[in-house]
Specification:
With 410 residues, the chain is an alpha+beta fold. The protein contains twelve helices and 18 strands. It has a five-stranded antiparallel sheet with strand order 5-6-7-8-11. 39% of the residues are buried.
Amino acid sequence: MADFIALFVEDARAVSVLDAAKRLGLKFRARASEHPQPCPQCGGSDTFAFNTAKNKWNCRAGGAGGNDGIGMAAHCEGLDLHRRQHFITACSIVLDRPIPGDPGPESEQERIERRNRLQERRSRNDAGTVVQAQPDVREREQRKACAIYRAAAAVGRYGCAVTDYLAARGCGRINASRWLRYASNLPYWHGQDAHGRPKAIYSGSAMLAPFIDRHLVAIGCHITWLDLASPPKYRPQLKDPETGELLPSKKMRGSKKGGLIPLFGDPAARRWVGGEGIENGAAFACWENWRDDTFYFAAGDLGNLAGPADPASRFAHPSLKKADAKGVMRPVMVAGPEPRPDQGADDAMWVAKHVEELVLLADGDSERVMTAAAMARARSRHARAGRAIPIVWPKPGSDFASMAAAQRVA
């Protein structure tokens, strides 16, 4: 790579996720560091998010994410970072500068100064990567999440709102759960007050579940705020008090990466059943009458269920297209069905080695092609000799919870 291009790339590496998001025209929330929104590449409602405090981005639909502006620009614009021209184009986008041509003859002094600048920027970028890797922030957030979960009451004793919620969603009633918990008045934090402190914009009843690692240790928690007077989802309509923007009624605190949400049963079971969300897993469990030989779980989102894709398996969506930065309509690129070869053990939810049957529940109301690719990737990632991994789909345009709720009403 020519030095002037290498310098261009190092400049791009130094661009934060915040600045890259501005140049990509992504949506920002007022007074917040987390900015969920529809994915510019994959669509959806809140499948994509970037965090300006953690300098990270993530696409749940595409199973992609990272901590640099170049990767985020490539994902949003449908570029393949393994192709040199696409990579340079992504650098150009985050820098908001044209790709440089040959600068022409230069003096020896200019050449030395340029190479010094290149080395300085490389060193600065590498040092910044080391700082971002420090675990303090993650560990603090994990401790906070686990404290929230531990402070909640066991569902079997105090959790009538949780059992009523699951029943209303078509998931049947449960007597007690080893995992689910209930909070009667849990604050919903969003934005900051005039003094820069976190601000609670709502407080109400909530269902809590842990994210656990392969040692069954909690590393985070999943929170669902409840409102039994608000069908059909029976969750409150939460809005940003300043913008009026609708906010998600579910949050994940702490860490989810590599973990899973246990719902019912014992992880020692040889048959596991689960998908993205709690309600889908619970509805399917109810339909199976809570089999004693089965452990029911949720992954939290599609990315955590399937893990990252092999870039070589990316393919063009057969029908969806999107305008790139220059206004040219291009096919939406879909994260492929093959797992990334060099992925780590914690890049997706864990499955115990003793599991002989892993039933994966698909979501029928998500984009079909992307979901199918992710489910195939999940099956490939979790495949083991002698393990059966069927994928079960609800009817098109629906999910298991809505199907169960409709049957309950009928």
